[in-house]
Amino acid sequence: MKTFTAAALLALVAMVTVHAEDIPIGAASSLVAYSPPPGAGSWASIQAPGAFNGSGEFLLGQADKGTITISPPQAFTSFKFFGYQRSDGGIYSITFDGAAAHRIDVFNKTSTGDDGPLLLFSVSDLANTPHKVVISNLNDARVGKPGQMNIDHVVISTAPATPAAPAPAPTTPTPTPTPTPTPTPTPTPTPTPTPTSTPDVPIVSSDPADTAPSTVDPAADQNSPETNDTGAAPSLRATPVFVAAAAAALAFLI
Known about the structure:
about 250 residues, about 15% helix, about 25% strand
């Protein structure tokens, strides 16, 4: 499928944009209504100089009652009114959809019957909708009466229409990747520590007498009687003298 850049889309929109259209409406159009109704002593079609489609409408009598109503079906934002200036006076009022009236002055005391139609009024800021336009003849104080009302044609202008922007080209959605599950790590067993054997420690007495080395005097062993801690009689020792004496006594008894 083709895709378009922003510049290409703008160029495409520019090519298809509908421009404003000017639509002329002649005095004899069915979109224009007159009051009083056309007839003897009222509105009449006259082949005036330079008239649109060859003729314009002129109010020949009942000037104080003259009204022109224009109702185009199209929406328009601009309106132009063309008619003839008159030397016998002329003041019109114009309204759009019954809103505030605008003034149109068509009086020109130097005008002759040979002058062509002129642009007498224009507006270009209307809402972009269909409008009902009403033009009424008023009393002109400059001449003391209403002047001769007339119309050659009007031009309405439609607003330029901008088409809706084209829908963007569909795009293929990018699939969302399926997440890969993260494996749960297997815990490593903690090794049980092997108890360390405590070596036997020899018990050492805290009494200095138990640890001090004994000193034996050989001379004392032979010549001094030995006593114990309790003061008891000394014990006999198996000395050489004692053994010899014991042997002599035993021989005497035998």
